[in-house]
Design a protein that fits this description.
Largest sheet: 5 strands, antiparallel
InterPro entries: Ntn_hydrolases_N, Proteasome_alpha, Proteasome_alpha-type, Proteasome_asu_bac, Proteasome_sua/b
Strand content: 15-25%
Helix content: 25-40%
Low-confidence stretches: 235-246
Mean pLDDT: 91
Order of helices and strands: HEEEEHHEEEEHHEEH
Shape: globular
Structural class: alpha+beta
Distance between the termini: 76 Å
Strand order of the largest sheet: 8-1-2-9-10
Family: Belongs to the peptidase T1A family.
GO molecular function: threonine-type endopeptidase activity
Protein name: Proteasome subunit alpha
Number of strands: 10
Number of helices: 6
Keywords: Cytoplasm, Hydrolase, Proteasome
Oligomer: single chain
Radius of gyration: 19 Å
Length: 246
């Protein structure tokens, strides 16, 4: 009779964490950053069918990296949670903080109680009436939650992406400039990477919109914004009017 194979709990947790981290790093990065009118989400994602960024509720959006079927499962759970709570209580009772807590519990339970952890990292963001009241929460595979400000990079070569964000990000950037900074940071994943509008998934939570504050940007709009940013950048001090024609 063979002896049972024993692994210490510490080793088991470490193995699970390493497994999840490797899975997340295999994907492409997503960045979330505050800009002049709200919160911008940009994913290196050529797929038109599999979304990494989506609306959860009135002022709340979700961005994820890692295994699509796993984060899609979490997204749907978040939408259900928001709908039920908004219906039973009040729409204002549905917050990014409440949602982050629900996700933290789910991810923590999955990490400790199952053999295979989820290979996902998430951001839940809520746009406020001003930049000071915006909320951005980052959740890792084991249910840890971090309260972020300014910008977040996750998935893929996240450290390289975050380094570029650190160098180029500034508060209160207009949308075109914020998008250009986000794309430059995503291009840092590979030395020769050049991201076209069609290989990006971009959305905003815009505090000045009526009713639904979430908006996914089509490729044509992404291209115009990038041209506008490049025009403004090359005109040093000009208003970048040459790039901003519709």
């Amino acid at each position: 009779m063979s002896m049972p194979f024993y692994v210490s709990p510490e080793q088991q947790m470490k193995d699970k964490a390493d497994y999840a981290r490797k899975g997340i790093a295999r994907g492409r990065s997503v960045v979330v950053l505050q800009y002049e009118d709200g919160i911008l989400f940009v994913a290196d994602n050529p797929s038109r069918a599999l979304h990494k960024i989506s609306e959860i509720y009135d002022r709340i959006a979700f961005a994820a990296v890692g295994k699509y079927n796993e984060f899609e499962n979490l997204r749907l759970g978040g939408v259900r949670y928001a709908d039920v709570n908004g219906y039973q209580y009040d729409r204002r009772d549905v917050t990014a903080r409440g949602l982050a807590n629900v996700y933290a519990q789910s991810l923590g339970t999955i990490f400790t109680e199952t053999n295979k952890p989820y290979e996902v990292e998430l951001v839940v963001a809520e746009v406020g009436d001003s930049a000071e009241t915006d909320q951005i929460y980052r959740l890792t595979f084991d249910g840890s939650v971090a309260d972020e400000h300014g910008y977040v990079a996750m998935g893929g070569q996240a450290e390289a992406v975050a380094q570029v964000l650190k160098e180029r990000y500034r508060e209160g950037m207009p949308l075109a400039e914020a998008l250009r900074v986000a794309v430059r940071s995503l291009e840092a994943q590979d030395a020769d990477r050049h991201l076209e509008a069609k290989s990006l998934e971009v959305a905003v939570l815009d505090r000045h919109r009526e009713h639904r504050l979430f908006k996914a940007l089509p490729a044509a709009r992404i291209e115009r914004l990038l041209n506008e940013a490049d025009g403004a950048g090359s005109g040093e001090g000009s208003e970048g009017s040459e790039g901003s024609e519709e």
